[in-house]
Description:
The chain is of the alpha+beta class. It has two domains: 3-57, no CATH class; 74-248, Galactose-binding domain-like (Jelly Rolls, Sandwich), CATH 2.60.120. It is built from two helices and 13 strands. Strands 1, 2, 5, 6, 8, 11 and 13 form a seven-stranded antiparallel β-sheet that branches. Strands 3-4-7-12-9-10 form a six-stranded antiparallel β-sheet, with no helix packed on it. A hairpin with a 3-residue loop joins β3 (97-99) and β4. The longest helix is centred in the first third of the chain and has 30 residues, at 28-57. The protein starts with a helix and ends with a strand.
Amino acid sequence: xxxxxxxxxxxxxxxxxxxxxxxxxxxxxxxxxxxxxxxxxxxxxxxxxxxxxxxxxxxxxxxxxxxxxxxxxxxxxxxxxxxxxxxxxxxxxxxxxxxxxxxxxxxxxxxxxxxxxxxxxxxxxxxxxxxxxxxxxxxxxxxxxxxxxxxxxxxxxxxxxxxxxxxxxxxxxxxxxxxxxxxxxxxxxxxxxxxxxxxxxxxxxxxxxxxxxxxxxxxxxxxxxxxxxxxxxxxxxxxxxxxxxxxxxxxx
Length: 252
């Protein structure tokens, strides 16, 4: 706030403090004038306060805050759930369309009747600033998935001793099965581990245990996550948050 604005604000506070003190002795004409001025001022003040309260109550844009298990050595929230996107939504989304730099939609529909939109989270329980809403109308394909590319840090130092954890907050119009598949490319091979999201439980979390994989630790190139939606026609799904973390499993 500029110095002039600060001085003007202080002067206005003094004037209204003086009006409040003198109101009991004012003439009726003066009171009517004060009331009219106060109502006009109060209207704009209430509007500004409502916007301020709403914005200050929302999760902070860019936030990467979320609970992390003890021993976590990498944790991440993708940008769709963290930062505002230049293009927040798409309709009639073709396959291989990207929303932001990390999320890609894949499907085999002959005619796309799908839409994707980034939405602002505002619930008290939300830690992520943004959510991702997907609306599916007619669906004539055999598969629908959101692919989330993991950053390079996710695979640096990755070993078969690691547990990789996925936490999500999901809202659905109707019951739906959602599967999470972790893919890790190592050399010419790709390790894949599939888990079904426990959507009926309070905590929607799954873990991928690399101890049971055939991962070649020395040849890891990249990793990505598939969120696979079964029978999605005529449904709306809102992913309020998606976070991932990893930690070494406890030594036996």
